[in-house]
Design a protein that fits this description.
single chain, 338 residues, alpha+beta, 4-stranded antiparallel β-sheet, 3-stranded antiparallel β-sheet, 8 helices, 17% strand, Band_41_domain, PH-like_dom_sf, PTPN3/4_FERM_C, FERM domain-containing protein, cytoplasm
């Protein structure tokens, strides 16, 4: 969301044609990821970055090998539950927690074994170790956009603190640093990168990519402008005066840069704030009913019946017939940013 523009204009809300279920849902999330989150001096800031990365792992945006996913999950458990205790936790305490995608019994056993090894780590220590391993992943801090190259192969263009990264089938294929990029532009559904010429070259190289729509292309371009300004410039560029004869977008990043944020932290007195860590949401693992169970339920003919449905936010809601209060079962949410 652009803080300088009205929300209604950005979301294109049509109140006459949309009911209450059709209104958009906004999520608060981390936008810029520093190259080394361990250098964040404030524990409260590190905690928010930890929460964002933990959710990205759960929702499949931050991909990793199963062994790495298990290690990250074990640090998340240490942060939330503390030291493993056989009497308190047992071997089934992960049954009601959704912490990794495709959570299986074998993966849960691996996570529990790793959790036992973190004895003595405070929540801040566990979160620091989580961030230290998460920053090494290829997709850490990457803003991905679907695209196609000149041969019409499906790829992803990732905007990062260091520049643009090209991914194909989840594998990093190429990296174009901000220092090497001379200009970025777009026209309709085409996105262009002009690279700085090498010493042995007599011309600049221009790479073109095709995106799904004009809006997707502009979104990628704006993300590049914001990341380049935040990580490379000391202060944002002043907006140019409006000229009726000038074509093209005049979008400029209007927030603080990384340099300004660091300088402000140095000037102000460092005060460690106290805060309470929020627990993870729990869910009830449902079992598949057997034919005998279904037969008993059909013969009973009375009592309450469960009727699953989906609400406007994408969560599975189970209503209890005859009850005035709906029961919400924790499951997979829709694919939106937090």
């Amino acid at each position: 969301m652009d803080p300088l523009k009205p929300v209604k204009k950005q979301l294109r809300i049509r109140t006459k044609s949309l009911g209450t279920c059709g209104l958009p849902v906004l999520y608060f999330r981390v936008k810029f990821f520093v190259s080394d989150p361990g250098k964040l001096t404030e524990e409260y800031t590190r905690y928010h970055v930890f929460l964002q990365l933990r959710r990205d792992v759960l929702e499949g945006r931050l991909l990793a090998q199963p062994s790495t996913v298990a290690l990250l999950a074990s640090y998340a458990l240490q942060s939330e539950l503390g030291d493993y205790s056989p009497d308190e936790h047992g071997h089934t305490y992960l049954a009601e927690m959704k912490i990794v995608p495709d959570q299986s019994d074998d993966l849960e056993k691996k996570i529990i074994e790793l959790h036992k090894l973190h004895k003595g780590q405070s929540p801040a220590d566990a979160e620091f170790n989580f961030l230290d391993h998460a920053k090494r992943l290829d997709l850490y801090g990457v803003d991905l956009h679907k695209a196609k190259d000149s041969t019409n192969r499906e790829i992803h263009l990732g905007v990062t603190a260091i520049g643009l990264v090209v991914f194909q089938n989840g594998i990093k294929m190429n990296t174009f640093s901000w220092a090497k990029i001379v200009k970025i532009s777009f026209k309709r559904k085409q996105f262009f990168i002009q690279l700085r010429r090498e010493v042995s070259e007599n011309y600049d190289s221009v790479l073109g990519f095709n995106l799904g729509s004009y809006r997707a292309c502009k979104c990628l371009w704006k993300s590049c402008v914001e990341h380049h300004t935040f990580f490379r410039l000391h202060t944002p560029r002043a907006p140019t005066k409006k000229n009726m004869l000038t074509l093209g977008s005049k979008f400029r990043y209007s927030g603080r840069t990384e340099f300004q944020t660091v300088e402000e932290c140095k000037r102000r007195a460092r005060v460690e704030r106290t805060f309470v860590r929020s627990p993870s949401k729990r869910f009830v693992r449902q079992t598949v009913p057997t034919p005998s169970d279904l037969g008993r339920k059909g013969r009973s003919g009375s009592g309450s019946s469960l009727r699953p449905r989906t609400d406007s936010s994408g969560y599975k809601v189970t209503s209890l017939q005859g009850s005035r209060t709906p029961k919400m079962a924790w499951g997979e949410a829709h694919d939106s940013d937090e």
